[in-house]
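Hi everyone,

Forwarding the result from last night's run.
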Amino acid sequence: MKGPVTTIVVVSVCVLATIHTSAQDNVRRTPWGDPDIEGIWTNATLTPLQRPPELASKEFFTAEEAKQFQQTRLEQTNADRPLPPGQVGAYNDAFFERGTSIVRSRRTSLVIDPPDGRVPALTPDAQRRVEARQQREKTSPADGPEDRWLTERCILFGATVPMLPEPYNNNYRIIQSPGFVTILVEMNHDARVIPLDNRPHPAGAIQQWTGDSRGHWDGNTLVVETANLKFNHQSRFGVGYLNGLSDDRLRVVERFAVVDANTLTYRATVEDSTVFVRPWTVELSMDRTAGPLYEVACHEGNYGMANILSGHRAEEREPRGGRSASPHRIGFLRELDRVGIELDHRVDAGAVLVEREDAIEIVAGQAL
């Protein structure tokens, strides 16, 4: 009799412990015990990345102020509104997906630290680099695709690391498996596969556009650290901060905190000591949504890039009134004229297709 009695007592204790844990945090869990955050989420919001200057030190809206701000933002961002003379516009409002409300906290900006709601100042060296970039953009805005924004090139948007809202496609699908969390980003269909086994980052020389992410659970919060982010002189922070800068020392720490079954609080801290005088942190809500996610076939129809580059080439050929070509561009164009190559201005993945009579040749690093 002693054996069965002991077994019954142990089972009872285990059941009571399980019930206590469920009642304590009320968080749905995966079969292997991690908080279950699988599903499709959106972070669309009308809240701007940085606090508008006119709001000064105002950190939160009242309920009435939030309602008025939302209405104003909807009117200001309506792509169907009449355009100023001389502007041709782009997408109509059906393409945009900013949501209809500000963040749940009613903060006046996504940046919560520094307290002024603004991205901190650049270091003196970083400021010089930004000014040099701006000067180059005035004289050589489109010598090649590498001179254009990463968003225009369909390489990277602000929705990936950190996960900042863009004007559209602000949806994510989170998939969990033992030891991994995968975040499928609708914007540019990037997939972040995040191991949770404490493995180290690879050597710093191995860099990727979306970096190398490592995660772990801190209670009911998923903490993800991303390093090894590929350097580029253009901003990786999306359309909300196109004048931004980062380098190969950039490190981003994200926290996905479970609020309830349909809400996550997302917080990301950006650290780059050679670019910013201090770290900065953003916070926003992620709400469960029905989806579905769609493929963003950005580059397949990227006529804008081809037109930008070919338009600048046409300008450079103008005998007067056009923008002067850079020396290396003039030499390249003369060489093309010498060998009699006909150009059709097609762009593919940052290289250029040059059509000859009998073949198509990729001219690396040169945009026509």
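The longest strand covers residues 251-260.

Cheers,
N.
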